[in-house]
Specification:
Layout lengths: L5 H16 L5 E2 L31 H9 L2 E2 L10 H6 L13 H15 L6 H11 L2 H12 L2
Antiparallel strand pairs: 1-2
Helix pairs in contact: 4-6
């Protein structure tokens, strides 16, 4: 389990590769960004400001739920999620001369990444994370939940 932000996603990827190289199997737990964001400034000197994202801000029930749903990495070669899949769901802008809607795609991608606990991702980073850590049903459920939020 790492922080639900960009650095947490980068650290998770690094650790996943290190452990995979040693033959170890790792399970990954994700806390949604909303659950891992501080609501107010820390009262202690040097503490976090309101809006800081970190696993230390998540309430115990959110951490327990994330640990219960922990899943193994599928490795870097899985291709269940493709650029075409992302474009069809409005998560990536168009390519090769097709109409471009990067602003809306970026907004939708950011919302999905926050829900999944990935931190902000480019479309390529999102696809890499989805292929490595998530199954199709979980991702489609998160997209549906975001559309109804």
């Amino acid at each position: 389990m790492t922080d639900p932000d960009e650095r947490g996603r980068e650290l998770r990827l690094f650790l996943d590769d290190v452990f995979a190289a040693s033959g170890a199997r790792v399970r990954h737990a994700f806390v949604a960004e909303a659950a891992g964001t501080s609501a107010e400034d820390s009262a202690r000197p040097g503490g976090h400001a309101a809006g800081n994202r970190g696993i230390e801000h998540a309430p115990a029930p959110a951490v327990r739920a994330a640990l219960d749903a922990a899943r193994p990495s599928r490795g870097p070669d899985r291709r269940a999620f493709s650029p075409e899949w992302a474009r069809e769901r409005g998560l990536a802008g168009a390519y090769e001369g097709a109409p471009h809607d990067g602003g809306e795609a970026a907004r939708r991608r950011r919302a999905l990444c926050a829900r999944l606990g990935l931190g902000a991702c480019s479309s390529a980073q999102l696809l890499a994370a989805l292929n490595r850590y998530f199954d199709e049903a979980a991702v489609e459920a998160a997209i549906a939940a975001e559309e109804h939020a």
